[in-house]
Amino acid sequence: AQKITQTQPGMFVQEKEAVTLDCTYDTSDPSYGLFWYKQPSSGEMIFLIYQGSYDQQNATEGRYSLNFQKARKSANLVISASQLGDSAMYFCAMRQNRDDKIIFGKGTRLHILP
Amino acid sequence: NAGVTQTPKFQVLKTGQSMTLQCAQDMNHNSMYWYRQDPGMGLRLIYYSASEGTTDKGEVPNGYNVSRLNKREFSLRLESAAPSQTSVYFCASSAPGKNTEAFFGQGTRLTVV
Asked: How close B16 comes to chain A (CA, Å)?
C-alpha cells in the first residue's frame, strides 16, 4: 500500500543553521516521484523540490536538497542556512506513476528562531 | 495566470445540507485531485481523476462524490454535510509525466454546524 510517514510533528531550529526534515515512504510501484511542499501560515501550497525513483543524483533547488536513500525508502529534505521565512509547515508527498495517485504525509511544522 | 481556481473560498453549511465545491484548471493537465486538510492529519486524498472520464477513490472518500465534468473541471459534492466534514479542501492538478508536481488551488474553508 502507498504510504508516507513524517515522524516529526514540530521542530525548532536556530536561524542560519541547517535543518533536516524526515520522510519515509512505501509503495509497490517501482516508478514513483517524491515531492516536498511548504505551507506558510497564509495557507497556500508551495512546491519546493522533486526526486524521481530512477534519478541517480539527489535533487537540489537553491537552499533545498533532497537526501534520497532508495534502499531505506527515505526522502529527507535538507534546508541549508535556515531563514526566518522558512518557518512553515512542510509536507512530503509521493506520486505513484502507474496510477498518478499522489498522497501526503502529516507534515512537520518548522519554527526558525532568531 | 489563473492556474487552479476553487470556488467558493469560504462556506458555512448546516448539518444535512448539500453543496458542490468547484475546481477548474487552465493548464491542460490530465490529473486532478481533491484533498482535505485537518490539523495534525496533513492532506488526505479524497478522490482523484487521472484522466477525463475517470475517477478513483483516495484515502477518505466516504461522504463525498466527484465529477470530472471535462478536462478542465473536477467538482466535489457533499450530499449531506456532517460536522466531521468541517475542513479545508484543496483541489490540485498535475500534468502527465514523471517529474511534474501538483499545482494547488487556494483552498476552501468549509464549516458544517
From this structure: 28
